[in-house]
Every structure is written in structure tokens, then in C-alpha cells.
Amino acid sequence: MSTIEEVMREFEEIIPSNTAAGQSVQERIIQLLEELRFEDRDVFGIRLALEEALVNAIKHGNQMDPSKTVRIMCRAGFQKVRIEIEDQGEGFHPADVPDPTADENLERPCGRGIMLMRAFMTSITFNPSGNCVILEKVRSEPEAESETAQSA
Amino acid sequence: MTQGNRRLDIEEVNGVTVARFTDKKILDESNIQIIGNQLFSLVDDDHRQKIVLDFTNVEYLSSAALGKLITMDKKVKASGGKLRLCSIRSDIKEVFKITRLDKLFQILDSRDKAVEGF
């Protein structure tokens, strides 16, 4: 039986290594999520995670090198969105990034991007070389409905 | 004025400088750089010591923006001043909580509370 859940929208974009191009693809994804009526708090978290992932790819991965590009693949349905972001840098090991919430790191001005992605997405996965991240978010239940479910 | 468009509305309230962000989204590196420079100028050029950052308009902010706030806090403390944040919406408060930066910054619910008892 065909259901509304099976409707999938997807696109792939290859952008240059500048943050303005990153903003533009970010807007395209957010617009798609709004069309799919994702909850505001989901959209907030996904935008934040996208910003962090795109800045990582453009700035840290490709080092803003104009000869390098970033590939973004987005696949969204009513239940879930999956975004793959791949740069042409050398990659990194996420485990090597120090815990930004440790007392000794609290005043460091950087190093919080991955943690925010993890906090706001359902899952984030890096490929073995660390130059590609997959962000996944499963749609949250609408607030009113989850309250009803709890009281039922 | 060499800083281009102002990204902060500045007001003096009882000797306290209240700087309200005008942007809804504090995202994008170049944007954050400009906002950071305007913030730092309050300390480096204007020598202000009691500063409240008002987040009423802010709907999004990234980790790069958090980095600028941390640097701002260090600058203010180094000059013997105090920095407070106020009027942060719940989504963004969660960002401060997750990163434990709610322990580093003094965060108050409203501008009035932030200006009080400096």
C-alpha cells in the first residue's frame, strides 16, 4: 500500500568552497523541510547542524580553496531527512576533537560544531577518512500530540 | 564609521551599555566576523566595562558565534569589566546548556534584570 511516508524528495548540489554558497544550499534544504512541515524545533536543530557541517567542510576540510568543491546530497521524506556533505580535504578523526564541555576547554573559542551536530540530529556518521559526514534526523512528534499521548 | 552596517543597536541604561543584536541569524563566517569586530570595538575602542548583550532578535546562532562571545567575555574580564547576556529564546538557551556555556556566561531572562545590580 502506498503511503504518504514513501514520498521522497532529493537533490544533489556541488558548491564552491565559500560560505555564501553554503548558506544558499542551507536555505534550499530548510525550505524543503518547511514544505514537508517538519516541526520548528526540528528545523532549528537541522539548520544549526547544517551550518556546522558546511562550515567544517568549506573552512576546515577544503581550507576555503577555490579549486575544491563540496558535494551535498539531501534526501527528505515525511519521516526523515538525510544529508550527506563531502569535502575534498584530507579528513580528520572525530575522536581526536577534545571534549569542549571539559572544564579546561570551556573557554576555548572553537571545537563545538561536532557536539552541536550530535546533540540536534538523530545520528551523525563520518566516513572512515573523515571527509564526509551523514546527518540524519527523524521527525519529532508534534508537541500537542506527544502531550496527548503521555496523558492517555 | 568604517565598520559598514551596524549589527548592534547600542543604548546606555544607567551606566550600562546594552547592545542588541539586529540580526535574526548569527550564522555565516563573514557575518560573524563583522559582528565580532563590532562587539570587540565596544571594549577595545570605546572602553565600555558594563555590557549587556541582548538576544531578543536572535533566532539562530552557530558555534562560531559562540566563539566570538567567549572572546568578548575574555576581553571584558581582562579590562576589569562585566558581561551579561539576556533575552535568549529557549532553543538557543539549549545550545548554551549543551555546550555548558551557561556556566561561563551570566544569562538573565530580561534586559531589565540584566541591567539591575551591575
Walkthrough of the structure:
The complex is a heterodimer of chains A (152) and B (118). Chain A is α+β, with helices and mostly antiparallel strands and 152 residues long. Chain A has four helices and five strands; from the N terminus they run E-H-H-E-E-H-E-E-H. Chain A has a five-stranded antiparallel β-sheet, with helices on one face. The two termini of chain A are 29 Å apart. Mean pLDDT of chain A is 91; it is low at 146-152. By secondary structure, chain B is α/β, with parallel strands linked by helices. Helices cover 42% and strands 25% of the residues of chain B. Chain B is globular and about 30 Å long. The N and C termini of chain B lie far apart (30 Å). The mean pLDDT of chain B is 94. The A-B interface holds A 19-20, 22-23, 41, 44, 47-48, 51-52, 55, 59, 100-101, 106-113, 115-116, 119 and B 27-30, 59-60, 62-64, 66-68, 70-71, 74, 91, 95, 98-101, 103-104.
Query: Which radius of gyration of chain A do the C-alpha atoms yield?
Result: 17 Å
Strand order of the largest sheet of chain A: 1-2-3-5-4
Q: Please give the number of β-strands of chain A.
A: 5
What's the count of strands of chain B? Answer: 7
**H-E string of chain B:** EEEHEEHEHHEH
- Summed over residues and divided by their number, the pLDDT of chain B gives a mean of 94
Layout of secondary structure:
The complex is a heterodimer of chains A (152) and B (118).
Chain A: E1 8-16, H1 19-35, H2 40-61, E2 69-77, E3 80-86, H3 113-120, E4 123-126, E5 132-138, H4 143-151
Antiparallel strand pairs in A: 1-2, 2-3, 3-5, 4-5
Chain B: E1 8-13, E2 16-21, E3 25-26, H1 29-44, E4 50-54, E5 60-61, H2 63-78, E6 82-86, H3 90-98, H4 101-104, E7 106-108, H5 111-115
Parallel strand pairs in B: 2-4, 3-5, 4-6, 6-7
Antiparallel strand pairs in B: 1-2
Helix pairs in contact in B: 1-2
